[in-house]
């Protein structure tokens, strides 16, 4: 039955008919308007060939096995799909809607095979904009093949926006020293990727941070004089940031730098939108702007510079999108924001105060996107329960407060140690909730991931992705925006960390051993999986490596719990295992990403080697 299929996203209305459509060896695909519908006809032809293994001829007319048409009265991005015993009909409210109908048919074929269940589907999205922001600055820059594979996945999930978050990884002609070691993405590659996205109804949106998060620029002598705090500053949560972080908003050269950056970048993009970042300006008022902040207020100083960036966007005829965290700290200034900007409200933990913060933006009359996250970064294997709750809450409250877009975020904090497929659960669940929030609770996520994302008929890989992301819960402590097992692979743990605190009960040897047993059982399931994707073996290797990294965190916690962490023999065993983990991290990185950034990513793991007493850096 159609209603039994594990769709991602799940269609709004599914009607079953107790008949079936028997797939023959040859089919015809028809449309009364072949020229206008040709891209979708080709897409359907590809689906039939790849998923069914049969041929299909494109013809002009109505008397065909598969019939495509457009009916604008359905509404933008809507579609209707009907399967009878002799024909499959897909009607789209526009070209994109027709495309999404084909994507749904692909999922039906993938699960039902050569005998399609009959019935009908009526579908449309909750959010007109459903996107993914992928961090390509800390430190992984995907290869073009990886980016195209990601675009294909997003398109199948009916997402229609992609942003590549850049700090220093766009190939600016006038700033080569900034990206020289980073394998940046070039303007030519943007043009190629943009064309690839357009065929799949995805808008490629430029994303360049240009206020905070500027360390990769300001570390260079030619730019250091533009820093707010050249010598560093105290983090709000304690500890010191060594070196610069934000631009000095009081220096006229700062906005000139920003203007020059966008003068170079924006001509490559067709999108009317630009994400200018401007989040987490932690050091604002701590250095060069201290006097201005004392005189005008920190919020006013921030807003003044944001409005200068807004002028740059207006010069280019673009709509400025910006992260709303800083203006939310100064609610009295929110009404002063231009009404043609888009405020991006982000929050990555379950229980984020969406209602309060969205209400403030809605009252100011601002267009809003909700921006949850995949929970993949700073975790090794993700945080499955948190991820699902966060993505759902963003969708539900966003609709309640009039948000027009849903931008899922996938960051690479701490060097993108998390492997690429760890994020796929978040991509799929975010796509589901942004398309039809109400229906998404019906999805069996492990089963749907196996079928529709990993193309694994054994069902193993979806279960692995789901359960690996909950392995950290075995230890009992819940860490915001990270995980306790991630803490197991970064320096600084002590026996004090084992004790009960406001994050959870004491970490015991018994809990650690339960986590290890769970991880090893999941590694065994990985080896029994049967993905039919082109990168199937790579997926197996990546998930197995995820398990080894999780186990290393467990081994370190157990050494602390047993009181033998300071024993050099223990450290030698830990360093031997970590060396293998690092080697796999390097090997697998090169299967998905460019070499730039790998040294920095490895150095973060090597910091733990130093704690084990291995001082020489043998990372690369």
Name the features:
620 residues, alpha/beta, 17 strands, 42% helix, globular
Name the average pLDDT: 96
Q: How helical, in percent, are the residues?
A: 40-55%
Our count of helices gives: 21
Give the terminus-to-terminus CA distance: 53 Å
**Which structural category do the helix and sheet elements fall into?**
alpha/beta
**How are the strands of the largest sheet arranged?**
10-9-8-17-16-15-14-13
> Runs with pLDDT <50, length 5+?
none
What proportion strand? 5-15%
Question: What value does the Rg take, in angstroms?
Answer: 25 Å
What does this protein structure show overall?
- With 620 residues, the protein is α/β, with parallel strands linked by helices.
- It has 21 helices and 17 strands.
- The protein has helices spanning 34-52, 95-112, 144-156, 176-179, 187-198, 215-218, 221-224, 252-265, 290-296, 298-315, 325-328, 354-363, 384-400, 424-435, 445-453, 460-468, 484-487, 509-527, 536-561, 568-592, 598-611, and strands at 13-22, 26-31, 55-60, 66-70, 79-83, 88-92, 115-123, 129-135, 161-165, 203-205, 233-234, 240-241, 273-275, 319-323, 342-346, 368-371, 405-410.
- The strands form three sheets. An eight-stranded parallel sheet has the order 10-9-8-17-16-15-14-13. Strands 1-7-5-6-4-2-3 form a seven-stranded mixed sheet, covered by helices on one side. Strands 11-12 form a two-stranded antiparallel sheet.
- Helix 8 runs parallel beside helix 10 (298-315).
């Amino acid at each position: 039955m159609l209603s039994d299929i594990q769709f991602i996203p799940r269609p709004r209305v599914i009607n079953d008919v107790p008949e079936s459509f028997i797939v023959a060896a040859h089919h015809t695909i028809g449309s009364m308007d072949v020229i206008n519908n040709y891209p979708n006809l080709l897409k359907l032809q590809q689906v039939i060939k790849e998923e069914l293994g049969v041929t299909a001829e494109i013809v002009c007319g109505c008397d065909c096995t598969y019939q495509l048409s457009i009916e604008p009265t359905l509404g933008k991005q809507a579609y209707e799909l009907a399967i009878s015993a002799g024909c499959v009909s897909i009607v789209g409210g526009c070209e994109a809607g027709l495309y999404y109908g084909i994507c749904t048919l692909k999922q039906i074929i993938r699960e039902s095979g050569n005998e399609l269940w009959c019935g009908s589907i009526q579908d449309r999205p909750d959010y007109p904009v459903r996107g993914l922001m992928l961090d390509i600055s800390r430190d992984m820059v995907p290869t073009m093949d990886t980016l195209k594979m990601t675009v294909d996945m997003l398109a199948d999930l009916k997402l229609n926006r992609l942003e590549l978050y850049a700090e220093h990884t766009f190939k600016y002609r006038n700033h080569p020293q900034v990206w020289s070691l980073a394998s940046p993405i070039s303007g030519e590659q943007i043009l190629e990727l943009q064309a690839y996205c357009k065929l799949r109804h995805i808008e490629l949106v430029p994303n360049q941070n240009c206020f905070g998060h500027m360390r990769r620029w300001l570390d260079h002598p030619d730019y250091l004089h533009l820093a707010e705090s050249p010598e560093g500053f105290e983090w709000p949560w304690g500890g010191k940031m060594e070196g610069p972080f934000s631009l000095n908003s009081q220096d006229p050269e700062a906005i000139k730098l920003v203007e020059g950056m966008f003068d170079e970048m924006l001509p490559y993009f067709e999108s009317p939108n630009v994400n200018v970042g401007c989040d987490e300006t932690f050091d604002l008022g701590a250095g060069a702007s201290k006097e201005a902040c004392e005189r005008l207020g920190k919020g006013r100083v921030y807003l003044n510079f944001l409005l200068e960036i807004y002028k740059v966007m207006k010069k280019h005829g673009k709509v400025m999108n910006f992260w709303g965290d800083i203006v939310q700290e100064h609610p009295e200034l929110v009404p002063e924001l231009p009404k043609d900007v888009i405020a991006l409200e982000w929050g990555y933990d379950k229980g984020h105060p969406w209602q309060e913060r969205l209400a403030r933006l809605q009252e100011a009359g601002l267009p809003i996107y909700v921006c949850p996250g995949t929970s993949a970064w700073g975790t090794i294997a993700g945080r499955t329960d948190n991820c699902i709750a966060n993505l759902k809450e963003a969708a539900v409250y966003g609709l309640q407060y009039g948000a027009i877009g849903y931008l899922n975020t996938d960051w690479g904090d701490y060097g993108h140690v998390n492997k690429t497929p760890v994020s796929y659960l978040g991509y799929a669940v975010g796509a589901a909730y942004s398309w039809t929030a109400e229906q998404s609770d019906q999805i069996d996520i492990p089963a749907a991931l196996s079928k529709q994302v990993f193309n694994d008929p054994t069902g193993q890989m979806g279960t692995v992705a789901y359960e690996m992301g909950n392995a950290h819960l075995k230890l009992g402590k819940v860490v915001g925006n990270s995980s306790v097992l991630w803490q197991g692979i970064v320096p600084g743990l002590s026996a004090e960390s084992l004790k009960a605190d406001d994050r959870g009960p004491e970490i015991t040897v018994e809990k650690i051993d339960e986590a290890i047993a769970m991880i090893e059982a999941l590694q065994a399931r990985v080896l029994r999986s049967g993905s039919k994707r082109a990168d199937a073996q790579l997926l197996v290797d990546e998930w197995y490596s995820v398990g080894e990294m999780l186990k290393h965190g467990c081994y370190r916690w157990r050494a602390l719990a047993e009181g033998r962490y300071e024993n050099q023999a223990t450290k030698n065993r830990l360093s031997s295992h970590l060396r293998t983990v690092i080697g796999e991290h390097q090997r697998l990185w090169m299967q998905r990403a460019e070499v730039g950034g790998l040294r920095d990513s490895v150095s973060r793991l090597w910091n733990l080697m130093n704690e084990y007493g291995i001082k020489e850096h043998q990372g690369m």
